[in-house]
Amino acid sequence: MSFSIRLTEDEKRLAESYARLHSMSLGESFKRALFERIEDEFDIAAGEEAYGEYLESGKPSRPFEEFCRETGI
Questions:
Q1: Which of 2, 11, 53, 61 could form a disulfide with 7 if both were Cys (CB 3.0 to 4.6 A apart)?
Q2: 73 Cβ neighbours under 8 A, 6+ residues apart
């Protein structure tokens, strides 16, 4: 699948500069950026869901130092 997007000259220069800096094509840089953003948003949503489940569980929290002692970290 292919698609096109419209960029201003400044946006195009910035995108091309970024692609060159990372030794990749312009298309690959957009593809990577898109999927990194999707993954980040998925991770945020999963974290928010897990935190909501934790809050609903009513389980008390404890200091991180205590957790480290108990697990030997």
A1: 11
A2: 67
